[in-house]
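In the design runs reported in the main text, the only information available to the sequence generator was the tokenized backbone. The following block is the verbatim input for one such run; it is reproduced so that readers can re-run the procedure and compare outputs position by position.
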């Protein structure tokens, strides 16, 4: 156990040894093991965006086993997926890397107010040997309070049974404009909500400099909160999650094979004190060897071993 991982675990004083062991598994695995940084492969896009949009750019990715192999070979800290993908591949890769079961999912056939269905349970996560459960909330949706109640119940059970909890906190819905979904005030707020809901690991999108809420705007201006650069915005989001005492990681977004831009984002996450990335489409939609190379560069940037080229 490195001093940094010990320090991070000390922030979660209410948790049982079982939950802390699982959190430590996530932090100690892979190329970034022990650094306090994480790169996680999430593959729920088949459910969330549909199979062709997700896997046609790199057809081997239709096979559930592809993603286990990619995460293992790249040295990711963990692999996160819905029930079906984990059931389909789990037996072939027992003990090879920590797993996170997504316990709710949405599809893009539904165009009504953003919501998710419960698609997995704590019992499923334990049966599949997972270290954590994952759950998406949509702050700003008319369904947000229902989702907060659901994650509360799943997190309570997960913690009672010794698992860690990862919350994907993605603002969207009737209360927000499109720009508001990634505005700095709203992303910082989304990180705070996930922390208050008891997440061990919080996942948000990288924020823009836009400020959505009028009341918040006044404070950002009065207090001169620095939000000009991406690194400053990352630092503000991390501060918003209990003064940096919660693990906050940032999502990759739609495939953007302009690696320069991607590496600059990883650099900003590193410079702002973010804890790493969760990179789905940008890794599994490119050929395998290129994905490994990109993920290794991402890890080196997060570990401070390399600068964005
Ligand atoms: P990507 O790196 O592919 O963006 O994946 C991260 C992720 O959080 C997935 O887990 C999830 O399916 C997707 O983003 C959600 O994307 P959207 O913003 O379209 O809902």
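Verbatim output:
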């Amino acid at each position: 156990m490195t001093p940094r991982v010990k320090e991070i675990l000390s922030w979660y004083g209410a948790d049982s040894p079982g939950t802390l062991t699982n959190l430590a598994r996530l932090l100690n695995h892979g190329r970034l093991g022990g650094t306090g940084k994480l790169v996680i492969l999430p593959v729920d896009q088949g459910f969330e965006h549909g199979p062709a949009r997700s896997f046609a750019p790199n057809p081997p990715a239709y096979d559930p086993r592809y993603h286990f192999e990619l995460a293992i070979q790249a040295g990711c800290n963990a692999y996160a997926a819905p029930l079906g993908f984990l059931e389909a591949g789990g037996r072939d890769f027992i003990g090879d890397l920590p797993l996170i079961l997504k316990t709710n999912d949405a599809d893009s056939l539904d165009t009504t107010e953003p919501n998710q269905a419960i698609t997995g349970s704590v019992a499923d996560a334990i049966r599949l040997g997972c270290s954590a459960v994952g759950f998406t909330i949509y702050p700003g949706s008319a369904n947000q309070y229902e989702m907060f109640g659901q994650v509360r119940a799943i997190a309570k059970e997960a913690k009672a049974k010794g698992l860690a909890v990862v919350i994907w906190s993605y603002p969207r819905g009737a209360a927000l404009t499109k720009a508001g979904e990634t505005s700095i005030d709203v992303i910082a707020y989304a990180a705070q909500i996930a922390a208050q809901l008891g997440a061990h690991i919080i996942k948000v999108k990288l924020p823009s400099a836009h400020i959505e809420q009028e009341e918040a705007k006044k404070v950002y201006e009065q207090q001169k909160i620095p939000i000009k650069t991406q690194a400053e915005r990352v630092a503000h989001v991390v501060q918003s999650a209990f003064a940096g005492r919660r693990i906050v990681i940032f999502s990759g977004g739609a495939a953007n094979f302009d690696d320069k831009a991607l590496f600059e984002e990883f650099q900003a996450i590193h410079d702002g004190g973010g804890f790493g990335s969760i990179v789905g489409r940008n890794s599994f939609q490119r050929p395998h060897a290129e994905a490994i190379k990109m993920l290794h560069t991402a890890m080196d940037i997060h570990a401070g071993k390399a600068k964005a080229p």
